[in-house]
Every structure is written in C-alpha cells, then in structure tokens.
Amino acid sequence: MAEWICRTLRDGGLEGEHAPALIIKDTIRCPLSSFVFDHVLSQLSSFILSNKSQSKGIVLVALSRSPLYYQQFLKSKGYDVVDSPCWIKALDCYSDPLGWKSKLVESGSILNRDPGSSFTSSLCKNVRDLDNLFSSIIEIGKELAGDGKGRFVVAIDSVSEMLRHTTVSSVAALLSNLRSHDQVCCLFWLLHSDLHETRATAALEYMSSMQASVEPMALPANGQIGNSMNLSLMEQNYRRGKFCVRVKRRNGRVRMMFEELCVEISGVKFAPVSSEDNVISQSLVPKVQFNLQLSEKELNDRAKVVLPFEHQDNGKTTQIYDGRKSLNEDETEIHEKVNSSGKGEIIYFRDSDDEMPDSDEDPDDDLDI
Amino acid sequence: VKIYIHMAAIRPRSSSFSRSTSAASNAVPGLKHGPNGTMFLSSGIPDLDKILGGGFTLGSLVMVMEDPEAPHHMLLLRNFMSQGLVHHQPLIYASPAKDPRGFLGTLPSVMVSKDDKSRAHESEKEKGLRIAWQYKKYFGEQNSDSQRDGKSEYCCDFDLRKPLERHFFTGKHIDCITLKDSADLTTFHDRCSSFLSQTPRTDGNVIGGRIAIQSLCSPQCEFSDKEWDMLSFVRSLKSLVRLSNSVAIITFPPSLVSPAFSKRLQHLADTLVSVKAIPDEDKELAKLLTGYQDMVGLLSMHKVARINTQVPAILEATTFSMKLHKRRSLTLECLNQAPVHGSSGTSYGTSGSCSSSSKTGTLDF
C-alpha cells in the first residue's frame, strides 16, 4: 500500500486536474509519521533519480527538522545531495523561522557561523508570510524543473509547525494554490492531528486527496499507564503501528487500505495486515426494519404453535384454542360434538416450511410489454 | 393479490389538489407550474425532479451537504447549471477556485436522443387488459415518451461525457465569481442582490434565475472561520431569493464547520440534500446492495421545499443511490437492498436528519 501511494504520487495528476496530495497523520500514541514521511521522500527520490518519474526535482520545506538531518538521511540511503547534480532543494524554515537570529546578527550581537550548503537553497525568515513562502517554493521548483513543462514535487515537514504561526485558512489556501499550480506534480505533508482542533485537521484532510494515518496497534487497557503490561504495549506503539490509507478516487468512491508498519534500524517496513482485524465498514445504508429470516429458536417455537382445526395425532381430544383464556375447562363437551357429527369437517393442512413467499419467478415475466 | 390495470389510462398525478393547468398554457420551456401557486424549475436530473415532486420551487434555497471525500456535489451543480444555460436562464456561479469560469468547461451537454434507443419505450398500444404485478415500474416510462420530442423540454437528460457547446456560454447573463481572495462576503452579497432584482416576483415575464454557490465554507477562503458572517449571508440570501423568481443552490462541507453552525445552516435550507461517498471494493456492501458496481455514491433527501402550504412532503424513500448510466447520465435509484436483521440496527442517522428508513407512503386520497 505504501508503494502504491508512492507510485500514485509519482504519476501526478491528469491534465486539468489538481495534483494528488497526501497527508500523513499520527498522534502521540503512535508517533511514527515522520518515518513514513522519510520513506515517501526516499521513494520519490529514487523514482526521480532513476528517471521513472515525470517530475524533475523535490522542493522540501523543512520546518520541524533541520535540512542537515535530511542531508544525512538521504546520504544514508545512498543519495548524495551535495555534490551530485541538483534534484532536491530544501527551503530552510527551521533555523530561523521568525527572523530573530538575523536581527541579532544585524545588530552585531552574534556572529553568523552558518556556512550554508548548496542543499539549502534559501533561508526563510518569516514563516508567517505564506504568500512569500508560496512564491519561494515555486521559484525553487522552477529552478529544479526548468521552465515550461517540467514538474516538481513539494514536501512539507510539517504543517503542524506552520499552524503554530498562521491560520488554518492561510495554510489551506497555500496547499490549494500548490495543488492547482501547473508545475507541481504532487504534494505531501505531515500533520500531528492531536495537536490541533478537529476542525483544523478536517480542513487539511479536505485539501488532500489521500490520507495516510498511523494508528497504534494495541491500545492500553483502561488507560492505566502504571501497569507494566500497558507500558510494554506503549513501547510497542513506538516501534510498530497500523498504517491506514484512505484514497479519494476520481469516480467518487473511497478506497481504504491497511498495512502494518514496523520501524527498524534500516528504516520503515510495511507488511500486509496479519491479524483478522478487518474493518467493519460503517453501514451507510439505512437498515430496514423488518426481518425475513427466522432464528432457530423462532423456527422451533413456530412448529410448536397449536393451530386451530389442526388434527394433532396424539390420541387425545384435539384442543381448539378459540381465543379465550380458559383452555382447559369445559371443552370436552364441545369436542365430542364435533367428533360425533361426522358430516362436516374442517381439514386443515399447514403451509409447508419449504414454500417461500414471493418466490423468484416474477409473475410479470409472461407479460409482453 | 394481482392488480389489473388498463395501460392507456395511466396518468401520473402529483397531488390530488393540483390545479388543472394544461401544459400548453406554459409558454416558458424552463418553468413548470406546481401546486399551490408555485412554479418549478428543473434540477437537470430527471430522477431528482421526480423525487422533489416537479423540481426546485422558484424562490427556494437549496442546500447540499458535501462529503469531503467525494465530488458528488459537483455532479449536482453541473446538471443544475447546464439546465439553466440550455434554457437561457440567467446564472451566477461562485466558487473558491481561482478561475471559476473554467468550471463551465466541465458542464455536460444535452444527450442526443438517437444514442438512447435502447431506453426508448416501445409504444405498442395494445388494447387488451394486461396484468401488471409491479405496476409502479411502468409509470415513468409513459412519461418519458411524451417528453422526448422537441427541444423545449423542461428537464433534459445530460451527457456527462460531452461538454456543453460554447455558444451557451456567451451571454451577459452568466456571471462567474471567485470567493478566494474575498475577505468577507459583502461584495458577493451585493452581486447576488443585484442579480436577484432582475428576476423579481411580479406577474408578467417570468424567467427563472439560478444562483450556484460551491463549497461555501471551504477553508481556503478567509471568511471561512467567521461563521456568523457566513450564516447571516445565507439568511439574507434566502430572504432575497424568496422575494424573487430564482433558485439558489449552496453546497457546503458540514464537517468543516462547527456542529451548531452546521445545524443552523441546515435549518435555513428549504430543500436539504446530502451526498455521501461509498467505499470502493467493499464486499459487504456489494452483497447488501444490488447494482453496487455502477454506484458512485448515495444521495439523501432531508427536506423538500414546501411553499404556500402547511402540508409537508413525505417521501417514500429518503436514500438513493447515484449511478452513472453508461458513465454518461446521472440516475438516482431507490436502494434495493437485502433486508437486514432488524434488531441489531439503529436507524441511519446523518447529521441533522430525522429520517428513518420506514416506508411511509404518500398520503393519497
């Protein structure tokens, strides 16, 4: 499933469509989304470097982790970002997001010791100005992809950081602008959903076309953290999780996929779901209030019902229940009369259980309309 | 019990107390007389018009609750707008996109009837009596026959695969507005107000007007967190629309606004519809619903506009499946489902709906 997502991102959107956008979310109970982010980044890098993708580069907006981290991460994966030709650039919003450091440098209080690198294309000094950020992203992207038809990928780590500084509507506007830009092939971002109000998370999910969430495999019982079993469960949640993906398809249907996620030293591993924990899809369809099937007990009870006029073959005088409460009194007289008359009889055969009402044959089939 | 019906005598009735106005007196092709002195304009979807009892009432406000995971509200808007353009009714379209005029390129064109021979009703008028067990199935087919001739149909069948011809877009009566960079809704409100004054509720030349607002509470718009402003805009629009001969349709995603606000918006609507996505490749749902393969989503009717009357509209069914017939035209069908064990289910609740799935028939006297 993770491979499928990466391939979908690599392929981009069709002509005239918005670019596919992936939101990776997690909560504190299983905070493994940054590993997923790194995984997607490395997958897309490999597609670009092996020329399997139509996009020519990646613009990485680094807000919560330093560009140096990414440099080292990509190096560990075998992608050299410093010396080899340019296919990835980072917009550094981590070192000095609000411009405080540069103000201090200007006033001479501190020395600027940052050598900079070719990987870090520019330093963003004001993450609050998202219009500026948008133009910087597009500028860097055009450098990487060339003007014209070249496309690039945008990765934002993390939108939760952005929301610290700006409003939801401006972040949503930024994402929407990126998605509708012709040269953006695809877009993915990270969000820690429990840090924000549900409306903010809902708004960001609205802007995405695929949602990947990392959920804990096992929840601690009763929230008692002190329990040693719960501790080990919680520890497990820091290494393994459930990876749930919801994809909005073009025809309006929603595809849901599940995998198991496991973090190892070499990176993240995805495996198909092992347990029989299938999702019970919420019933969207209104439940019909009548029940045509009978349970076992009901079948038995039905067989035991005493029907009037039925010959019960047990030698005793038949009991005819005529609706009155007193069943046992004063009935023998009546029965004798019925038995002795001999002329008129009521012969009653119960409907057989095999006959289904409204069988499959449609009585209208012989109509010739 | 079998019912014997003489086929030639069937004439569908909308209500027992309808005026006996014949179709010939209706000079304007895009409008139709409805009960209680109201007029209808078509939604562009024949099945939806039938469910609503004729179409959208002039002077009503229609709200569509979107599902953030599916674009079905766009289908409804497209058909609505196309129908208006085909009938040369003035139109305003507003959306949070940068270039809303681009949306006009996705509007469907009228289905050419020669493609549709397979659906045509063969009119072999036999004189004898015939037995019809499920007689309701045959009502609609008689109707569609009479409407298939002539270009001036009240409700057209639209082909979603073919875009609308360009000549329908030229005209001063189409206005496309973007809500993207507006800080608030005052300018848009003024545009709507001047638009609606073109179609006042006076006797004489009645032309229906259409306002289509897509994704009102979309998070990209600056005013999306000013809930009271949006609410007062909708309320004001509703009162303006009521005094005019137009229909306004607004779609909004209820999950993106606070529940109280969503409730208030729903109460403001005269006609309330919600659309829902269905999961893909869901085996359980495939077993439960017939025709699951063709379905793209579900549509629920929560409220139907009733103007000039105190009698509510009670629908036979409130949930419909949206299907694309041959990927071209949108059809709405009542859900055909296998009965579910009743004791385990609670009735289906959508936000703001009081509908259960009990089949209450229309009150027929």
UniProtKB/TrEMBL annotation, chain A:
Keyword Lyase: no
Record flagged with keyword Transcription: no
Compositionally biased residues, Acidic residues: 352-369
Sorted UniProt keywords: Cytoplasm, Nucleus, tRNA processing
Top-level taxonomic group: Eukaryota
Pathway: tRNA modification; 5-methoxycarbonylmethyl-2-thiouridine-tRNA biosynthesis
Location of region: Disordered: 331-369
Similarity remark: Belongs to the ELP5 family.
The protein's name: Elongator complex protein 5
From TrEMBL, chain B:
Gene3D superfamilies: P-loop containing nucleotide triphosphate hydrolases (3.40.50.300)
InterPro entries: Elongator_complex_protein_4, P-loop_NTPase
Keywords annotated in UniProt: Cytoplasm, Nucleus, tRNA processing
Sequence intervals crossing the membrane: none
Keyword match Nucleus: yes
Localization (cell): Cytoplasm; Nucleus
Residue ranges of the region described as Disordered: 342-365
CDD domains noted in UniProt: Elp4
One Pfam family recorded for the sequence: PAXNEB
Domain of life of the organism encoding this protein: Eukaryota
Pathway(s) served: tRNA modification; 5-methoxycarbonylmethyl-2-thiouridine-tRNA biosynthesis
Statement: the UniProt record of this protein carries the keyword Cytoplasm: yes
Family: Belongs to the ELP4 family.
Name of this protein: Elongator complex protein 4
